[in-house]
Amino acid sequence: PPWGRQFLDAGIAKDSGCVTWMDVGVMTLFNLGQWAADLEMTAGGSDSTFCPHGACSGVIFGIETVNEPALYEESTYLPGIKHFASRTVPTLHTLFIERGLAPERMELTLSYTGSDADDFSTFIKNQTETSWKVPMVSLDFHQYYTWDHGVYEPGSDTVTWEQATGEIKSGQWNQFARFYNEDRHIRPYVGEWCLAINGDQVTLGAADENNLFDGHLASSGWMRG
Hints:
Elements: H1 21-39, E1 62-64, H2 74-98, E2 107-111, H3 117-129, E3 137-144, H4 161-166, H5 172-179, E4 186-194, H6 212-220
Parallel strand pairs: 1-2, 2-3, 3-4
Helix pairs in contact: 1-2, 3-5
């Protein structure tokens, strides 16, 4: 649409005007951001179009730009993941500021399931300090014990966040705990979490992948007695 062209940056082929699926995603988020900002409007100023009299104010505290982008193929599509973040985060931030919503009132949340947490968190730190001009973003971390094949010793994913940060260096949880923190302008959330194990894992060839979380429980003593 003509009214959104300013937000369709390098993703559009200048010679053909072709709109990519990434452009569609950017525009979708922009429209979602307008809706979220509208809900914060109260009768004291100009009332909300969707939810009058301020009835919906305070219901939404943030927008996640994309959930688990390029799952299991993060290393292949990492440049695109970063480019999408660079197109959406500053755009939504500017929209919210213009509508009077401070960053602590309407958070911008990213999601990344790749194993190189150090690289991605460094990217966020550098961008928030330079081109994004955003003080902080949040990051949605998903912990599923069954699929955490980065755990090298039984029980390593049953420790606290502080213990993981300071002591244990292996495992997906530990990587997130070490690198996704406020020193890198990131506020981490555990947005998905499950203790379940997959029944079909009991026959896998690798012993350390069979009943993975069950092994954690037994090794930590939670199942004793």
